[in-house]
Amino acid sequence: MIVVATEDFELYHEAVAALRERGVTFTTVRSDDDLPAATSVLVTAPDDTVSDLPSDVTHIETSADEVRQAVEEALTVLRGSGERTIVGVDPGTRPGIAVLSGEMVVAAFQVPLSDAVAAIRRETDDAVDPLVRVGDGARLQSAQIVNDLEDVPVELVDETGTTPYLGTGARGMGDVLAAVNIAHLEGERVDSRDIDPTAGEIQVIKDRSREQSPENRSIDESLARRVAAGELSIEEALAEHRGEGDENNGGDKGGEGGETVTTDSEITNATDGDESE
Predict the structure, then answer these.
(1) Domain boundary among 27, 51, 79
(2) Are both 89 and 174 inside the same structural domain?
(3) Longest distance between any two alpha carbons in the chain, whole Å
């Protein structure tokens, strides 16, 4: 565990902010307090007094201006303990991500789906023999994450029962805690995940595109399938849809072949059609 012990208020503020941003497990103590038994890294200012430091604790001196480099150094120490780095992912529109070094959680995040792969890669790029374990729920989002992690070993994990009961004050923590549990479970090694989206999943994407569209438009099924496959974001699909509309007589409503849905009545008809399949 990382411990911040400093009388430098500016360093304290910046260090706590940087560690929270990285989702790192840490604590703070006064510079003259005893260190917790689980301390692996101690962060202080150069002017802080440090005495009787255990031999197995790494001491990092830094300033407020250089605190981010110090945090990266501290994380490197934690991950250099000889334990394997395992990243657990609870997929969804905002995946929960937990990073384990051995049995210890060293970082945790919850980010938009579009940022998930970049966040995972930051944790695995410098790790020795990293492994990513992705839950098999939220099929479309799970497939996007698996397919975009081409250079990292990935296991697909049965995530049944991984979301714990959340008591008072724990609201919003479920996805991250599920990611911790997923990281602890062995799964099936996969290189990719192919998903054929259902009519209901396609309709959800079309509905979301309409919600995000300033023109109250819904993308057509072909674009929705590309979104489902991770080829386009909804924003990109909407932009492409607008371009197609401009080419078809300045955005004539209805589109070609009845694919483009732009009016309330057409959306209702399209929805009824999908539900009847």
Answers:
(1) 79
(2) yes
(3) 79
